[in-house]
Amino acid sequence: MEASLSDAALVARCRTGDENAWAELVNRFSRYVFAIATKGFGLRADDAEDVFQEVFARTYQHLDRLRDDEAIRPWIAQLTRRLSIDKIRAGSREQLSDDDIEPPDLDDTFDRLDDALAVREALGELSETCQEILDRFFARDESYQTIGETLDIPSGTIASRISRCLAKLREIFEGRNPAAEPS
Amino acid sequence: MTETFRYDEERLAALLRALPPAPEGWVRAAQELPRSRRELDDIVAKAVADEAFRLALIEDLERALRDVGYEPGLLPLEELRRRLSSDD
Asked: Which residue of A182, B19, B33, B81 has the lowest C-beta tally within 10 Å?
């Protein structure tokens, strides 16, 4: 049920102490935070884990202070950015400014990750099987054989299922984002 | 049109690849924050009420927690240290 809530509704539920809502909030943004820390800033696993846990600890602690519940995503993005910069600075012998630390293409990375999050939202409207197949193949980098064995599907049909599921995802994504339609 | 379609599917695939899952243990620890916060509050309250327990925590935090049945790996230890020192 929590998975279908808007970001604002989810934040409001978290604020009431609903632990299932909190678990969904973490689930919803965990990949995003992980990607900003590891892909945006190139943090090593141990540093990325520190940033990851601190982002959610502060989010949990400061939910009451959020001015606009719908703005939780950009708020989490900026918090992850800030904590990643602090982590890099703390591990450096030199005195580094934010500009020294931020990768030059960081804004592009954020735009891309925002798009990726929108695609994941659209993914949630597909059948469970399609969601599993696309996530396992593209995001988890699993082989046809592994996917077939896990989902009990003949591995010889995985490629065609991926193609069909991607086409459905495209329909849904374009339906949610009319500007994304080809001209 | 066919080329645009293929490109768009490729783009969707690339965007799916852009968000691999975070390690399960990290996600689980973050999801358990409400529980770990409650435990943190309990530990601090016990430390305030029981001087011997407070001293044991200061001497060897992880061992003292294990001795009373807590799993230190599931607790925000840095914050607990901060709170114990601020209660000095």
From this structure: A182
In which domain, by residue range, is A150 found? Answer: 124-183
- CATH number, domain containing residue A146: 1.10.10
| DSSP letter string, B50-88 | -HHHHHHHHH-HHHHHHHTT--GGGS-HHHHHHHHHHT-
Residue A113 placed within a domain: no
Q: Which of B15, B21, B27 sits opposite A26 (nearest CB)?
A: B27
Q: Is A122 helix (H, G, I), strand (E, B) or coil?
A: helix
Q: Can you give the pTM of this predicted structure?
A: 0.85
B→A interface, C-beta within 8 Å: 1, 4-5, 8-9, 12-13, 15-23, 26-27, 29-31, 33-35, 37, 76, 79
- Residue A66, SS3 per DSSP: coil
**Which among A23, A26, A138 has CB closest to B16?**
A138
Q: How many domains does chain A have?
A: 2
Residue given tokens 């602690």 in the structure block: A61
Q: Does A168 touch chain B (CB under 8 A)?
A: no
pLDDT digits (tens, 9 = 90+) for B27-66: 999 999 999 889 999 999 999 999 999 999 999 999 999 9
